[in-house]
Amino acid sequence: MLSKNKIKYIRSLELKKNRKEEHAFLAEGNKLVNDLINHFSCQLLVATKEWLQSHPHLQAAEIIEVTHEELSRASLLKTPQEVLAVFEQPHYEFDANVTDQSLCLALDDVQDPGNLGTIIRIADWFGIEHIFCSSGTADVYNPKTIQATMGAIARVKLHYCNLPDFLKSASQKNTPIFGTFLDGENIYTQELPANGIIIMGNEGNGISKQIAEMVTHRILIPNYPQGCETSESLNVAVATAIVCAEFRRRTAWSSSF
Amino acid sequence: MLSKNKIKYIRSLELKKNRKEEHAFLAEGNKLVNDLINHFSCQLLVATKEWLQSHPHLQAAEIIEVTHEELSRASLLKTPQEVLAVFEQPHYEFDANVTDQSLCLALDDVQDPGNLGTIIRIADWFGIEHIFCSSGTADVYNPKTIQATMGAIARVKLHYCNLPDFLKSASQKNTPIFGTFLDGENIYTQELPANGIIIMGNEGNGISKQIAEMVTHRILIPNYPQGCETSESLNVAVATAIVCAEFRRRTAWSSSF
Predict the structure, then answer these.
(1) Residue range A38-59: average pLDDT?
(2) Closest approach of chain A CAs to the CA of B18, in angstroms?
(3) Are B140 and B158 in contact (CB under 8 A)?
(4) From CA B137, how far away is CA A234, in angstroms rounded?
(5) In the predicted model, is pLDDT for residue A230 greater than 80?
(6) What is the DSSP code string of B77-136?
(7) Omega into B80 within 30° of 0, i.e. cis?
(8) CB neighbours (10 Å) of residue A43?
């Protein structure tokens, strides 16, 4: 039985203000909850009888059995699933040397929660563990972002920070900083290292002027055939995917073709 | 002044049934309307006075000047723009030899209108002019798809067809048919031609069994580092982007790195 207060609490997590106050976030659906429950502390698990019976060994501070109808009143999804869970927001420390030792992403005001979630899923696929976000970037704990990560949020760590300051200290250590620009150099003719920072910009405006000044390698995903009339740009998640795939190809497979 | 009937007509184009009956589709916003108006026959253009004044030479069967408030009653967008337009659906013939002469995409029941639009934008970027769609694929004229193409729909042609029959006739001509599978061969160690068909599958189920049997080259986008725990798959638009980028890199830039 799900009380009105619990329903109100769960639904309140749609708003960043409430998520921040409660240090909590919401995840819905069998696959996502299963992926996250071993990585984050679960405050509240709400599920149907059938689901709970088939998942007998779950760790959660509170477990509430509900009917489908009750669950759909708490759900933020168009098509409510058989389970939802409220998790505690983790707190990650990070070693400033991580950008020297591995490949990281930095997001300069990526606005769309779905794009952010897709980027996290891409980072996970390509073994990128840390994403540094400007304070204007969409909130990782937005339910739309969490759903779009498809569970990748269990493995990828986001750090909201003063991005110009972060990049300044990285550039002082000679960390390579890559950014995509429509007047950048063809990515396929540039050397790409196994460490450093790849910056992706805002959906409408790209990388901001202040951040652009800190980029040491301006790159471009060339269209094909070059010089033809085409779309003016690629979606930010799509561009992230192509860039990350090419960095990893160079490290692992560049000898092939 | 926008009549109630016109508002009803415009809004009715949210549904495929109505779009099909009317052979029409809706596009909203300054950039999109500007991109499409020279490529498709415009039945109806609805815009504010300011917009019309700054676009004096437009060809449309009917032009209606409206206030912002009137326009927002006809709009399907959360944030209505200053212009919307109803275009006639084009009818494309295609030469069956196109798959021998160029690189094409085939979509096997891609469901999400936003994914479809993003895939069209990717195709445009990589010079892929023809996309062959199973009849279960989302409708290209869904307003969400049209908006997500960001204008690329002016250059990329979609053909809804019996996909198994289409692929069967392609395979009889020895056209290479590529499909992505989690147990496919690493794309970076395969030869990739400048022509042929790349099949992308449904968001949840991938490529269907019937279609999979016609694939001549099963490929995989390898994750990094290989063998690590990671997301189980990539979003279909993201996978399309990485595959198309790699095909084009081979043709244009493989000598670089």
Answers:
(1) 95
(2) 24
(3) yes
(4) 22
(5) no
(6) SSS--SEEEEEEPP-----TTHHHHSEEEEESS---HHHHHHHHHHHHHTT--EEEE-TT
(7) no
(8) 17
Give the best residue of A224, A236, A248, A255 to mutate against chain B (max B CB count within 10 A).
Answer: A224
CB of B97 within 8 A of CB of B104?
A: no
The separation between CA A182 and the C-alpha centre of its own chain, rounded to angstroms, equals 24
Reference B42, options B107, B84, B88; nearest CA is B88
Probe site for chain A from B231, B234, B248 (most A CB atoms < 10 A): B231
Distances in whole angstroms, Cα of residue A214 to Cα of each of A42, A76, A166, A172, A205? 40, 40, 10, 10, 17
Which token pair is A69?
């109808």
Query: By a Cβ cutoff of 8 Å, what residues of chain A touch chain B?
Result: 118, 121-122, 124-127, 150-152, 155, 186, 188-189, 191-192, 221-226, 228-235, 237-238, 241-242, 245-246, 248-254, 256-257
Two structure tokens written together for A115: 């794009």
Lowest mean pLDDT among B2-16, B62-76, B94-108: B94-108
Mean pLDDT rounded to a whole number for chain B: 95
User: B41-96, pLDDT tens digit by residue?
Assistant: 999 999 999 999 999 988 999 999 999 999 999 999 999 999 999 999 999 988 88
Domains of chain A in sequence order: 4-88 (3.30.1330.30), 98-253 (3.40.1280.10)
Using a CB-CB cut-off of 8 Å, the residues of chain B touching A233 are 150
Query: Is B186 close to A246, i.e. CB distance below 8 A?
Result: no
Q: Which of A174, A81, A237, A40 is nearest to B241 (CA)?
A: A237
Least confident of A172-176, A195-199, B79-83, B231-235: B231-235
Chain B residue closest in CA terms to A149: B231
For the residues A210-219, what does the mean pLDDT come to? Answer: 97
**Segment B173-200, tens digit of pLDDT:** 999 999 999 899 999 999 999 999 999 9
Residue B172 burial (CB count, 10 A) = 8
Q: Choose among A125, A191, A221: nearest Cβ to B231.
A: A125
The more confidently predicted of residues B254 and B17 is B17
Per residue, what are the HEC states of chain A? CCCHHHHHHHHHCCCHHHHHHHCEEEEECHHHHHHHCCCCCEEEEEEEHHHHHHCCCCCCCCEEEECHHHHHHHCCCCCCCCEEEEEECCCCCCCCCHHHHCEEEEECCCCCHHHHHHHHHHHHHCCCCEEEECCCCCCCCCHHHHHHHCCHHHCCEEEECCHHHHHHHHHHCCCCEEEEEEEEEEHHHCCCCCCEEEEECECCCECCHHHHCCCCEEEECCCCCCCCCCCCCCCHHHHHHHHHHHHHHHHHHCCCC
